[in-house]
Amino acid sequence: MATDEKRQEILDKLRNAVIQYDEDTAKEGAQEALDNGLEGNDAIFNGLVSGMEEVGRLFESQEYFVPELLMCADALYAGLDILKPHVKKMDLGVRGSVVIGTVEGDVHDIGKNIVKMMFDVAGFTVYDLGRDVPLDKFVEEQIKTDSDLVCLSAMMTTTMVGMKKVIDNLKAKNPNIKIMIGGAPVSQDIADKWGADGYAKDANNALKDAINMISSLKKMKEEAESKGG
Amino acid sequence: MTPREIILKAFEQGKPERVPVTLFGAGMWSIKEYGTTFKDLSLDAGKMADMLVKMSGKLICDMVYAGSGYNNFHAAALGGGIKFREIGAPDLEAHIVSTEEDLMKLDLSKIDSNEVINTVKKALRLTKSKIGSEYAVTMTAWGPYTLGARLVGEETMMKATFKKPDFVHKIVDFATDLLIHLYEPVVSDGTLEVISIADPTASGDLISKKQFETFALPYLKKFNDWARSKNVHTLVHICGNTTDRLDLFPLTGASCISLDHKTDIAKAKEVLHGKMCFGGNVDPVKIMLQGTVGQVEDACRQVIQTAGTDGGFVLMPGCDIPPTVPYENIQKFMQIAREWKL
Question: What is the pLDDT of residues B108-149, one digit of tens each?
Fold first, then answer.
């Protein structure tokens, strides 16, 4: 096992690799984590995700924009690909499975991909329908996979109206399903009006919300571990 | 003064007799209202022109936009497929450029023989001959950065701004040449006096001020300078909150910059008045789609009061409007400006 000092050094390396969007260092750090016997979850959450939290802060304060975010996401995935096979299945008491996609007529999927990444990291099973998804497909996929959460994204004022139809259809089929909507033209007001359970304000807040979710999962995990340990 | 004269006067930073007013594009709204589809009109210039003329009579908007919603054909004409859909504008089936070699192989002249583009141009000419003395008739396209991103893919291009910046410059420069090639025939025969372009991928919510300055601004300038050299006005819409980069907009050489509802319009007045015309910025969703007629009125009055009483300003929504915006809200939007004497 790594000493506390070594562990911290590796976690910092992973964290900084994500913040500085350095894929090579992220891979290196992930390999070091494994070589030094760090837990996969430890390296992911306290290294990579901790870096992504800082990226979220930089995004909020408009030091980082979408291109930077995409680069950071690549670095995170580079580390994650190495660490993930070594992660023990997380038992968080959450049946995390989620259907996600950008609604029909809309090809903007960057925000959706960033949110998806956070679900990936959290160990959710993600059914990504991609972009320009026919509205009925969301309902079909939810039923097929029995997912608890459906996330809809729209980036255009001209396509967002399709979301309401999906929400209505999903709720009619299964009133207990949770639905989160996001995208530049969407608002809390619209989420309330259209009956969505969650709302990611825009690209900035979609990430923030996803990170909040991961952070709370992290907390649950820590609690579960402290009880178990 | 005709609506055309009124809006052109604003573009020249003058103070017309009333507040100029226009939607931006509104292709999807108009086509839905006319009761047809993008596909149905795509090869029928007569019907497309009829739609534009009829909708113009209904909207009484100072500008009329030919080609709104058909922007992706400019990229597709070079070698990509197009997908028509029930909802939304026709889109590219796939991105067509991965490498510099791919880019070198593209042949600009292919847009001259694209049937849909030629239908739009024909509809533009027909519309212009019918209502061009009354309204400013324009033709829309993506701005250089957005069109470049359409060619290579948005994510790829954004990452390339770090990994291969020279490639990005080449792509955006190529997209600029493509736009000039597209517009040249309808500019040189005197059809167009205003060009409208939208550059949503250069949004203030997506890229930093520094990236905008590096990868979007020089090419907007190249395009707008070309238009200016032909005595044609340019209306440029940039999405997202651009308050931090308002000072760069006069450098684009555009006649008028159309601002998103997230941009601080008071600040825009402070920075832009006297340097260039600007338009904006009533919330297209919260107000135009969801608001009552009274809320539309209040929002329009507030924007005009804040930014539009000294000329060089056009009342616009902060972006294109959803196809389901109630007609009454658009009517009120137009009415407030039309009755506001300057």
Answer: 999 999 999 999 999 999 999 999 999 999 999 999 999 999
Using the Cβ of A72 and the Cβ atoms of chain B, whether some distance falls under 8 Å is answered with no
**Annotated domain spans of chain B:** 3-339
Q: If DSSP codes are grouped into helix, strand and coil, which group holds residue A127?
A: strand
CB–CB contact A70 B155 (8 Å): yes
Q: What is the CATH number of domain B3-339?
A: 3.20.20.210
Res A93 pLDDT > 50: no
Phi, psi dihedrals of residue B58, rounded to the nearest 5° = -85, -40
Note whether A7 and A39 are within 8 A (CB): no
Q: Which domains does chain A have, with CATH numbers?
A: 4-88 (1.10.1240.10), 97-207 (3.40.50.280)
Q: Kind and range of the H or E element at A27?
A: helix A23-35
- What was the pLDDT predicted at A208? 59
Q: Which residues fall within 8 angstroms of residue A53, CB to CB, at 6 or more apart?
A: A211, A215
Taking CB atoms and an 8 Å cutoff, what residues of chain A touch B162? 21, 67, 71
